[in-house]
Specification:
Radius of gyration: 26 Å
Largest sheet: 3 strands, antiparallel
CATH topology of the largest domain: hpI Integrase, Chain A
Distance between the termini: 76 Å
CATH architecture of the largest domain: Orthogonal Bundle
Helix content: 55-70%
Order of helices and strands: HHHHHHHHEEEHHHHHHHH
CATH class of the largest domain: Mainly Alpha
Number of helices: 16
Strand content: under 5%
Number of domains: 2
Shape: globular
Length: 340
C-alpha cells in the first residue's frame, strides 16, 4: 500500500479533482496554492527531510499550519476567512484519502474534524446611484482603452458578474440580437442574463471598433488587454480600482468606503432589491448557489427593511398608547414629550 504524500497528491490533483469532481481550473489552482504553502511549512519545520507520508499530516500539524498562516510576524498574516479556505482545500484532499485508502479512514476522520473558525460578517459595501455615475464617468470613451474600460464597468454592473467571469467572457456568450449574455460562472454553471440596449450598444461598439487584435490564446475572449492577451481577474480588478480611485476625487463619499470589484456586484444586487425584484430572481441573476448568500443584501439594505416595516405596522394600540391623552395636565404632556 502506497501512503506517500506525493503519490496521493498527484492522484488528487490529476484524477480526483479533474475527473471525479470536475472542478474549475481556478478552484484547482487555489487548492494547489494551499498545498504549496503547506509543503513549504513542512520543510520549514523539518529542514533536513525530503519526503512525507499522508500520516505526517495529522490534525495537530494542520492546526499549527493554520496558526502559522494567521501569524502576522512569522507567517502570512492571513484573515480567518482565508484560513478557512485553506482548511477546506486540505480537507478536500482527506475526503479523497478516506474514499480511496480505507486503511487511512480513521486518520482522515480526525483531520476532517478540525473546525473552521468563526468569522464576523462583513458589511456589504455598495455604491449609491450618484457614486455609480461618478465611477462610470471616469473612462475616456474617445480612446480604445477607455471604451473597453467603460464596457467592462457597465458589463459588471448590468450583469453582476464576478471579476473572473468578466475575464473569462467569450464572444460566443453574447446574443446581441436578443439582448442577452450566457455567463459561465463558478462550477461551470451557466446563467442567462439580460442586457440593457445601451449596454449591448456599448459592448458591440467595443467589439467591432476598439477591441485590440487578439493573440491566438485570446482569439475567443471578448475583453483583451493592451497586448492582445486574455485578462486575468487581477487585470479586471486593476481597471475597477483605477476608476474607483479617480471617482473618489470627485465624489468624496466613495473615499469613506472599502470598495473593490466585488462592490459592483453588490451594487447590482442592492439596486435590484431596491427595484422590488424578488430575492430568488436576484439569486439566479447573480449565480448564487444558495439563497443564504443573496440574503446578505437583505440584511444590509436599511431602506428595504423600512419598506417592509411600513407594510405591517405599527399596530393601532401601539400608536394610540404613545399619543398624548386629551385633557391631560401640563405635567402629563411634558412627561410624554420627555419620553419621545
Amino acid at each position: 500500500m502506497n501512503t506517500a504524500l506525493d503519490h496521493h497528491l498527484r492522484e488528487f490533483f490529476q484524477t480526483y479533482l479533474r475527473q471525479h469532481r470536475n472542478l474549475s481550473p481556478n478552484t484547482i489552482k487555489s487548492y494547489r496554492d494551499t498545498f504549496k504553502l503547506l509543503v513549504a511549512y513542512l520543510r520549514l519545520r523539518h529542514p533536513g527531510r525530503r519526503s512525507w507520508a499522508v500520516r505526517d499530516l495529522d490534525a495537530m500539524t494542520l492546526l499549527k499550519f493554520l496558526e502559522h498562516l494567521e501569524d502576522p510576524g512569522q507567517g502570512r498574516g492571513n484573515s480567518a476567512q482565508t484560513r478557512n479556505q485553506r482548511l477546506a482545500a486540505v480537507q478536500s484532499f482527506f475526503r479523497y484519502v478516506a474514499l480511496f485508502q480505507p486503511s487511512l479512514q480513521a486518520h482522515a476522520k480526525r483531520v476532517l474534524a478540525v473546525p473552521t473558525k468563526r468569522t464576523p460578517k462583513k458589511a456589504v459595501e455598495s455604491l449609491n446611484r450618484q457614486e455609480l455615475e461618478a465611477v462610470l464617468a471616469q473612462p475616456d470613451p474617445t480612446t480604445s482603452d477607455g471604451t473597453r474600460d467603460l464596457a467592462v464597468l457597465t458589463f459588471l454592473y448590468n450583469t453582476g458578474a464576478r471579476a473572473q467571469e468578466v475575464a473569462d467572457a467569450r464572444i460566443s456568450w453574447f446574443d446581441f440580437q436578443n439582448l442577452s449574455v450566457t455567463i459561465t460562472g463558478k462550477g461551470r454553471k451557466q446563467r442567462l442574463t439580460p442586457l440593457w440596449p445601451a449596454t449591448a450598444r456599448l459592448l458591440r461598439l467595443y467589439k467591432d471598433h476598439h477591441r485590440r487584435k487578439p493573440q491566438a490564446i485570446a482569439s475567443d475572449r471578448f475583453f483583451v488587454n493592451q497586448r492582445g492577451g486574455p485578462f486575468t481577474r487581477f487585470g479586471i480588478r486593476t481597471i475597477v480600482k483605477r476608476y474607483l480611485r479617480r471617482a473618489a476625487g470627485r465624489c468624496p463619499s466613495l473615499a469613506t468606503k472599502r470598495l473593490s470589484t466585488h462592490s459592483l456586484r453588490h451594487t447590482t444586487a442592492v439596486h435590484l432589491l431596491e427595484a422590488g425584484v424578488d430575492p430568488n430572481v436576484i439569486k439566479a441573476w447573480l449565480g448564487h448557489a444558495s439563497l443564504n448568500t443573496t440574503s446578505r443584501y437583505l440584511d444590509t439594505d436599511l431602506n428595504h427593511k423600512r419598506r417592509i416595516l411600513e407594510r405591517f405596522g405599527p399596530p393601532h394600540y401601539v400608536a394610540s398608547a404613545s399619543e398624548p391623552k386629551s385633557g391631560g395636565s401640563a405635567d402629563q404632556i411634558l412627561d410624554w414629550l420627555n419620553e419621545l
